[in-house]
Amino acid sequence: MSAPAGAAVARGRGERPADAHAQRAPDPAPAPAPAVFLDRDGTLVRDFRHGADPAALTLLPGVAPALRRLQAAGYRLVVVTNQAGVARGLFTVDEARAAGRHVAALLGAAGVRLAGYYLAPYHADGVVPRYAVAHPDRKPGPGMLVRAAAALRLDLARSWIVGDSLADVGAGLAAGTRALLVDIGAVAVPTAADLPAVLNDPRAGVVRHLPHAAAVILDGAAPEPATAGPSLRPSVLERRRTRGPESRGCSPPPGRGPRSSGPAPRAASLPRPSRPARPRTPARTPRPTGACAPG
Fold this sequence. Notes:
Elements: E1 35-38, H1 63-72, E2 76-82, H2 93-109, E3 116-120, H3 143-152, E4 160-163, H4 166-175, E5 178-182, E6 204-207, H5 210-219, H6 235-242
Parallel strand pairs: 1-2, 1-4, 2-3, 4-5, 5-6
């Protein structure tokens, strides 16, 4: 005798409900997270020209605390670095990756966990055929950021990139992030007319260092004005002149003491003082060549 419609049907021991094998609905995927994309050289560690020696890579002052603040606020931290030295035959891609593992270990020891580390070993003028190509991963192309966003579920519209090169700014803007240029004197802007167009984008700003960038991102601190005035200023050129070989991890040439690494006086906005005549000095020591020569 069949049970009336809608009545419960008793089940014997060991029997399973008819929908026992139905799959449970999957939990909703977490929302994409914001990220801070980080250039490596000149932003996280001292700026070496085509350097891949892990022993030479040390964190810049204030980097670890700034990254811990960003991490605690929910930002995923992803390094995106151009390493054209691979394409130029100066070191191998395995050596470049080893340097990346060293940087990740330095950060890990300081309580900072990287969500990803991406490097672009390409350069169109390289000598290693496999890497001597124009590639979208090489900044200012957005390739590394786009790949990281897909792999790590990142929300590019809520993300930032921080780096010391206009290529970093260009890569971030092309990928849809906001961008902060770290002014270490790598970008020469002698006059307002020379201001790079990419810095006219309202999503771009200028900061003094990574802790300043963290304050802009987290606290709403004002970035430096992207002008040829107090930030990207004519004195940047003076700072570039003071960055001797020792700033890239080399010793000063014999007979010449270390040069100042601090900001030069803003001579471009002040009258140049007259200088007393100086006695003639012996010829200077020839400039270094090779790996320590100014690039």
